[in-house]
Design a protein that fits this description.
The chain is mostly helical and about 190 residues long. It has nine helices and no strands. This is Transcriptional regulator, repressor protein MphR(A).
């Protein structure tokens, strides 16, 4: 008896977008095609075209889905991190765990390129910057004489440390980031005795 595997007729958008995001992150944004996504998620290409209309819309929806996940993760970490400089470091080190090894980080930069090209996605990045900066600033609220933009300064240092690590990834990413952030906090604290 020959049993044929049938494709599922429906699947929630979140499941499809997760499969699309895995494709983008594994093989770059250009790897996201309706054909490859159909193979990855099990829906037909026609169903995907009907649902997402164009490759550009599919890519945008996929990256908005990724931003939604980062927003949730940031909110969760900001809510649970101690409101201390060490809590700010903990928050950023935990966010850094999502970057993976150097190959994964490099692929992530291709995804970032797509965010920078699309005004809707760029706006999501700007909104995340504001939320993250505010959460980090809250960790310094009880530290006297901190600059008013300490949250943005720390977020900027964190992003810079990720980039500098990528040129010389001789140690584990989160260890590098934690060391760099501790030095940043020590420097800013020494400036404000």
């Amino acid at each position: 008896m020959d049993v044929k595997m049938t494709r599922p007729k429906t699947q929630p958008d979140e499941q499809v977008l997760e499969a699309a995001y895995r494709l983008i992150h594994a093989d770059g944004p250009e790897a996201l095609t309706f054909e490859r996504l159909a193979r990855a998620c099990g829906l037909s290409g026609a169903t995907l075209v009907q649902r997402f209309k164009s490759k550009a819309q599919l890519k945008q929806r996929t990256l908005l889905y990724a931003w939604d996940g980062l927003d949730r993760k940031t909110e969760e970490l900001a809510g649970s991190a101690p409101k201390t400089p060490a809590g700010a470091i903990q928050l950023l080190v935990t966010l850094s765990k999502g970057y993976g090894d150097i190959e994964s980080y490099a692929e992530g930069l291709l995804v970032l390129r797509e965010d920078l090209r699309d005004p809707v996605l760029r706006a999501r990045g700007a909104a995340w910057k504001a939320v993250l900066s505010k959460a980090l600033a809250g960790c310094f609220a009880d530290v006297p004489d901190m600059p008013g933009d300490i949250g943005l300064l720390m977020a900027s240092h964190w992003q810079g440390s990720l980039l500098w690590w990528s040129f010389d990834p001789d140690r584990e990413l989160t260890a590098y980031v934690e060391h760099s952030l501790k030095r940043f906090v020590a420097a800013i604290s020494a400036r404000n005795p």
